[in-house]
Amino acid sequence: MADSSTKAVYDIFQSMEYGPPATSSSATAQAWLDHHSRSLGFFIDGKFVRPAERKTCSQADSKGNIVCSTACAEEDDISQCASSAVKGHKAWSGLTCYQRAKGLLRLVSVLGQHGQCVSELCELCEASCSASTLVRLLQYYSSWAQLRDTLITNWTPLGVVAVVASDDCSFYSLMLKALPALAMGNSVTVVPGRSTAAPALLLAQLFTGAGLPAGALNVLTGSDMTLGAKVAQNSSISYVTYCGNKQDGVMLCKATAGMGVPVSVSPCVGASCPFILFESADIDSAVEEVIETAFKKNKEVHWVLCVQESVLDSVVDRLRLRMAGMKCVVMPSDADRLLLDAAVQEAQQQGATLVQSCAAPPSGALYPPTVLCGAAPSSPCVVSPTPGPLLPLMTFRSNTEAVTLGNHTPHGQAASIWTEDLTLALEVAKSLSVGSVWVNSRPLSDPCLPVSGHKDSGTCTDGGQEGLYQFLRLSSSSPPLPRSSPVSMDYSKFGTGASPAIIPDGSDSASSPQSYLQFVGGKACKSVSGCNVAVQSPGGGGVMAYYPDGGRKDVRNAVESAIKVQPGWMKKSPSARAQSLYSLAKGLEAKRREVAASINIQTGLPMDQSDNEVELSITRLSVWAAYCDKVQGGSLPMPQSGSALSLPEALGIVGIVLPDKNPLLSMVTLLGAAIATGNAVIMVPSQKHPLPVLAFIQVLQSSDLPAGLVNVVTGSRDQLTAALANHSVIKAIWYWGSAEGCQYLQHTCTSPLKTLRLYCQKDKEGNGGKDWTRSHSSLLEETWRNAVQWKSVWIPTA
Predict the structure, then answer these.
(1) Per-residue pLDDT averaged across 324-332, rounded?
(2) Range in 460-474, 491-505, 519-533, 655-669 with the lowest mean pLDDT
(3) pLDDT per residue over 696-727, tens digit each?
(4) How large is the average pLDDT for residues 400-412?
(5) Does a structural domain hold residue 220?
């Protein structure tokens, strides 16, 4: 008979604790650092370079011990690196796809020999990336290097790509940018943050040892984000891509505005992500996972726990039990501790209650794992969380309210959904405006998953085949922005100039020019200002017509109309959207003569050429109608058990400032791509050739498109560009215009972030680098890809 003092299995289970952490050694990494005297220079042209008299920055570990120092690059170093990168690109892109793939795969075996050193160095620098993760990245992108010319035809590498990271960015996020750029045949200049500097230098050394051509991968280190802007200023750089926190990303965008180099940002650090727990979930598993993800030491995102009211008490009880005895977490600094204290106090004043593993120390950079039960959706700890072991908890009643809470934050990076109801999980996953969704699992990263930055979480797609296109351009097209120096601009005064005055000429009213209307909310209407702008004849002989002089209020009205209709249009079946586009093409066919005449009058083209543009436009609308139900993502092969889905989604509301060249054909090409993928559109006609678009309004009026889906606002291009840029709801802007306008948009569209497609019309014809008459599949594919953002959904099966 068992002794009465013997514990029951339940008692043993309740008292179980995690075992002591495994002892980690950093001997190999320390030896590598000692070999370099713990003073690291740059990696340029296949070797370490340490110029004399350079300032240095120190990298400390979690205990405050100095790991190493890195040099701060200056102008001479940037020039040397750029020259090396150009030569490296020539050598690297000159290899066959097989040779590039072989070179990347060779590094896999090198990592097998030196993976321990890489892992230890990442651990020392708190860059969080294992050797096995790097191997997975290399294997995935080496296969794409092999298949580039087979599966991605008619595309060519950009040239020299600058990959910039903030100090708090993980090494995995940095490599998720650098490796696909290399795989596509670009040379890469890495500008790492402090935590990733040493691992980036080590990996560059290993790359070169594995046979990568000298200059194909260079590393420049510095003291802050200004180095990224200085690197971008070099004329050899073709593209800049950034990962890290949003503040540094915004600073980089503003600093590079007007340089003529495209910049994309992925703010992967500091976002607020929902962890949604439904009553149908396995609560024990969900609580275990939220503890592991919310309170781990190094985390790039902050989690907000959303719990269905019917299981709130059960969840809170399990949280208390699970958190009992958990130790305090070391904060990055005393200043972060003060910020966390202020956030907790404010949340308590708003009615939140605390669940803590232990009492918070009165001072010092230590804080216990804390759950704020009943946090308000508007609380700073939810909207803009501070670093630290803090988990806000909010409640919801219905599934619809859960989606509303999940979409409440300005960030759109990721979400975790917990429910045993697969139908509910997929419905919520599609309704959340985030780039990644994990169902009944912890956050999982894999390079095959395409992830776009929804809302304020980025302007590009990383991962998967879709993430490769940011490092490629069409072989037949030229760069959209010419390299230039930023002009001196007063951004507050851009677009504020007065429109040219209309002076009465005393002509016969019977023969006076026609007055057009703009198109907002499904109705032809005047502008809010009530003023008009004159359309001059091609030869400057006189006034041909008048159109409304729209402004900020007209754009606001158009956005309000678009907001009401876009969600419903996006949820329509692809076949229903296709039928509406076919109907629009038939409507254009019915108005063919009038529209062709407007092209003839406006541009001076012969009538047969004008009619041919109308014919091409009808065909283009039919092509977009056919596209609607043909490209819809699919299932992805994952290394783990389970199913992964990639889903293309509409951007939301897109502002389009139309080009001068082929005014009708360019308009229907852009309009068709936008609405075929579920977006609503606000178009600004070309100031030089507005009449064909104004004539097309008659086609829109007779179409079956929902009122407000397509809006045409006329007026000064600069004034309306400023109105589009400063409206927080507009997600993307496609712009054909002046270099000053491009610079203004790059500088302004950062809060919130907007996806920009900028084309400078400097040539006489104003085409901005596109031949609209070409119907090549890759040209249409590029336009289609600009109109969607990608979401990945991961559903484990075991």
Answers:
(1) 81
(2) 491-505
(3) 999 999 999 999 999 999 999 999 999 999 99
(4) 91
(5) yes
d(C-alpha 435, C-alpha 458), whole Å = 10
Cβ-based neighbour number of residue 639 at 10 Å: 11
Q: Is the dihedral of CA 123, 128, 131, 134 positive or negative?
A: negative
Long-range contacts of 611-615 (CB under 8 A, 24+ apart): 613/662, 613/664, 613/665, 614/588, 614/664
Instruction: Return the amino acid letter for 665.
Output: L
Give the type of residue at 205: Q
Angle between helices 777-786 and 663-676 (to 10 degrees): 60
Per-residue pLDDT reduced to its tens digit, 31-90: 999 999 899 999 999 999 988 889 998 888 767 788 899 999 999 999 999 999 999 999
**In Å, how far are 204, 635, 794 from 446, measured between CA atoms?**
22, 14, 10
- How far, rounded to the nearest angstrom, does the alpha carbon of residue 599 sit from its chain's CA centroid? 37
Looking up residue 131, the CATH number of its domain turns out to be 3.40.605.10
In a domain, 481, yes or no: no
Contact (Cβ atoms closer than 8 angstroms) between residue 372 and residue 423: no
Residues 6 or more apart in contact with residue 793 via CB below 8 angstroms: 426, 429, 436, 437, 439, 644, 645, 647
**For range 86-100, the mean pLDDT:** 96
Q: Are residues 740 and 619 in the same domain?
A: yes
Domain count, the chain: 3
- Answer yes or no: do 233 and 124 share one domain: yes
Residue 475 has pLDDT above 90, yes or no: no
Contact 736, 659 (CB under 8 A): yes
Assign 751 to helix, strand or coil.
coil
For residue 509, tell me if it sits in a domain.
Answer: no
Same domain, 252 and 299: no
Q: Are residues 158 and 264 located together in one domain of the fold?
A: yes
Shared-domain flag, residues 90 and 190? yes
pTM of the model: 0.92
- Domain co-membership, 306 together with 262: no
Could you tell me the CATH number of the domain that includes residue 388?
Answer: 3.40.309.10
- 548 and 440 part of one domain: no
CB atoms under 10 Å from CB of 601, counted, come to 18
DSSP of 148-175: HHHHSTTEEE-SEEEEEE-TT--HHHHH
The reply to whether 487 falls in a domain is: no
The position carrying tokens 């606002």 is 713
Q: Is pLDDT of 421 > 50?
A: yes
The reported pLDDT for the residue numbered 294 is 87
Neighbours of 296 (CB within 10 A): 11
Question: Among the residues of 324-368, which ranges form H helices?
Answer: 334-349
Over residues 425-441, the pLDDT tens digits come to 999 999 999 999 999 98
Q: 171 with 205, same domain?
A: yes
What's the average model confidence in pLDDT over 451-468? 91
Query: Which residues constitute the domain of residue 423?
Result: 272-445
Q: How far apart are CA 368 and CA 390, in angstroms?
A: 9
Pairing of strands 187-191, 160-165: parallel
Q: Which residue has the tokens 């082929």?
A: 662
d(CA 381, CA 287): 20
Give how far Cα 500 sits from Cα of 184, 503, 601, 680, Å: 49, 9, 22, 31
